[in-house]
């Protein structure tokens, strides 16, 4: 049987029949099998927006060609880890996939998660958005699946060296109920509604292999001897001591208390640059019209954008754009205010939003070198300032137009996707002046690229684009000074986003096994 790949252009609302007819016509075939290997939207000409599709075709009528072989992740068999134990702290993408790899290799693996299962998190979020009372270790940042469960579920990654891990992750996601399209879309996403089903399904697979999960349980310390960790001490639903041969910590970007626990117990971290800013929200149809030339496009969800600018004062970029999504309050605890974005799979909400952020070095504020524990305190103080603006989860807001013109907002659209209130404010009183000035200059550039951008509203404080600290790593990926302790995922400072964090969890878990 021969094989070839073919590039096709198809309407945005095409169906499977049209795709097959197109292949048949282009290759003059009668019998064939096909699959999509890549699909991207070409919107360069707004009058002729279409899909670009690369299809793999197999047929006895093709005389040459061979279907490409996909390299598989090599995981040790079930006998490798027999009699050995692994403890994974954190149930986000890095923790889940690290634990799955350990369990597949025969380790007795335990996941410790201070948050709750997805269904309980969902109930807590509904109550929180009604009352403004944030439950301890619950809500948007903590619990089963991590912060990614209540997000847009983007599956893109800029990291080039994780193709094998990425393929493994996508296969597991699809097996757990993710749409097949994530395997070929150039900008795949899952949506929070899908993630709330997919994440528990992967956890169930982990359990079916013999793994164990303790929710509502927090690591408060650990004991070590001769450079090796012996056990972790926990409180909560499963208090006490848990011993193991390998300890892998997978904190999310909001797990400041766990960072502090690790640092105070001798794990080596350093502070690092990250990005801060706010969320900018527009009506979805307005962004669609700007990007596509029409308010709706058959076969396509909400329009996306990715914007960057460079000016004398610094760079600005958009991050985690959520078409048809919501701005959410993702504070890790009462008394702090942090915004994030989320959307469901169909991205059909009234509004679209994205983070607009600029790189931030804490040293620029402190005017000296900053230790990791100090960095955490400085960021929390900034988040506290935004909460204390109204002593609630109501958030400061300002029109983009007035930020560009450096004027105070007198009024702005009151309707928003945000569950609490937007309060008229002046961000110059809440942010470092250099940060505000750079964001203002960046918004000017964005408004030249998307003509309606100045119609948006900037709201809240976006401070969790990545962790403000980074764990040091030895050549074997262990966390010095300990031989059998590893820090992985977004909270390690070595990854960002669902895919790169999950891939980092896999890489670190496999590296940890090599110590045996």
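Q: What amino acid sequence fits the structure above?
A:
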């Amino acid at each position: 049987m021969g094989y070839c790949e073919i590039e096709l252009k198809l309407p945005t609302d095409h169906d499977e029949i049209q795709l097959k007819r197109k292949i048949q016509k282009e290759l003059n075939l009668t019998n064939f099998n096909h699959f999509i290997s890549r699909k991207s939207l070409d919107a360069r000409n707004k009058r002729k927006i279409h899909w670009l599709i690369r299809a793999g075709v197999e047929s006895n009528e093709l005389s040459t060609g061979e279907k490409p072989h996909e390299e598989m992740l090599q995981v040790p068999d079930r006998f490798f880890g027999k009699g050995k134990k692994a403890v994974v702290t954190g149930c986000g993408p890095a923790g889940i996939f690290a634990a799955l790899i350990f369990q597949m290799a025969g380790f007795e693996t335990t996941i410790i998660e201070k948050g709750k299962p997805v269904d309980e998190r969902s109930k807590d979020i509904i109550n929180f958005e009604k009352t403004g009372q944030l439950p301890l270790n619950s809500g948007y940042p903590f619990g089963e699946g991590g912060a990614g469960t209540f997000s847009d579920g983007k599956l893109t990654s800029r990291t080039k060296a994780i193709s094998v891990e990425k393929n493994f992750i996508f296969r597991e996601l699809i097996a757990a109920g993710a749409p097949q399209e994530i395997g070929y879309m150039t900008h795949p996403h899952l949506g929070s509604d899908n993630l709330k089903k997919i994440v528990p399904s992967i956890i169930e697979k982990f359990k079916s292999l013999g793994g164990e999960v303790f929710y509502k349980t927090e690591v408060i310390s650990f004991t070590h001897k001769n450079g090796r960790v012996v056990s972790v001490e926990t409180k909560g639903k499963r208090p006490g001591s848990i011993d193991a041969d390998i300890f892998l910590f997978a904190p999310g970007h909001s797990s400041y208390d766990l960072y502090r626990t690790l640092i105070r117990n001798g794990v080596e971290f350093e502070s690092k640059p990250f990005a801060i800013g706010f969320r900018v929200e527009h009506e979805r149809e307005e962004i669609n019209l700007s990007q596509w030339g029409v308010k709706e496009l058959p076969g396509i969800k909400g329009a996306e954008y990715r914007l960057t600018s460079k000016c004398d004062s610094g760079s600005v970029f958009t991050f985690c754009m959520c078409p048809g999504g919501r701005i959410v309050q993702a504070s890790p605890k009462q008394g702090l205010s942090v915004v994030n974005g989320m959307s469901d799979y169909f991205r059909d909400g009234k509004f679209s939003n994205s983070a607009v952020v600029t790189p931030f070095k804490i040293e620029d504020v402190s005017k000296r070198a900053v230790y990791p524990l100090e960095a955490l305190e400085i960021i929390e103080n900034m988040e506290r300032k935004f909460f204390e603006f109204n002593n609630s989860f109501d958030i400061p807001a300002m029109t983009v137009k007035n930020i560009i013109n450096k004027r105070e907002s007198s009024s702005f659209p009151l309707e928003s996707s945000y569950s609490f209130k937007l309060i008229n404010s002046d961000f110059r009183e809440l942010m470092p002046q250099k940060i505000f000035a750079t964001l203002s200059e960046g918004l000017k550039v964005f408004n030249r690229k998307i003509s309606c951008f100045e119609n948006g509203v900037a709201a809240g404080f976006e401070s969790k684009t990545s962790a403000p600290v980074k764990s040091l790593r030895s050549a074997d990926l262990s966390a010095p000074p300990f031989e059998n302790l590893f820090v992985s995922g977004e909270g390690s400072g070595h990854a960002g986003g669902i895919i790169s964090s999950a891939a980092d969890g896999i890489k670190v878990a496999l590296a940890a096994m090599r110590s045996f």
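Q: And what stands out in the fold?
A: The domain at 2-59 is CATH 3.30.70.2700 (Alpha-Beta Plaits).
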